Amino acid sequence: MNNRPTNSNERPLPQNALDARHLVVSLCKNGHFTEAEDAFVHLCQMIKFLPCGVSDDGGPLTSTKAKYSLIQIESFQKSISSLVRYAPTIQQALDYACFCLYKVPEPLRDEWLEITQTINLIYLYRKSGGQAGRRKALELIKTGAEYGYALPSVTPGPNYRRTFQEPYIVFINVAEQVLRQFQLGFSADMKSIVDLHSLHTSP
Can you tell which superkingdom this protein's organism belongs to (predicted)? Predict the structure, then answer.
């Protein structure tokens, strides 16, 4: 994430978090990724985003939780999800996903965002084609299943998410497109990946 200076030829900067979110998503979808990054930097500045440090074991080191409004949280999450989803390269998507995992503190980072970023990476690896990409996607699916991403959340999301499809359903749908190519499927408890033959022959 680079904070590039603006110039007189660039579009006006949004004045609130919701407008910034719409701008980031629109720029991403229309292939203007560098401008989308600039808009995301502006969003972070508006909501006074403070990244967390990294602990000795490599995990996020959080301090006192900052206070963000629901609109700020939603705008941040939708924006950074779009940066991963529409990144021009897998490496750029991974950079933002890792930034999200290790530098974004709660409440900006939550279970919904982590699952969404995993789904985005699975989609990108599958879209990249080739056996190597599909195997990377499979690794993410196995890890996601172990974390319970294929199960309904025990903690309901905020009201503003009720209009969206539950992330565990999206995870299952995206994962199954990859699993079928390897003749694999989810176990009965949805917590691991097993051979389809074993599913059909188990009592």
Answer: Eukaryota
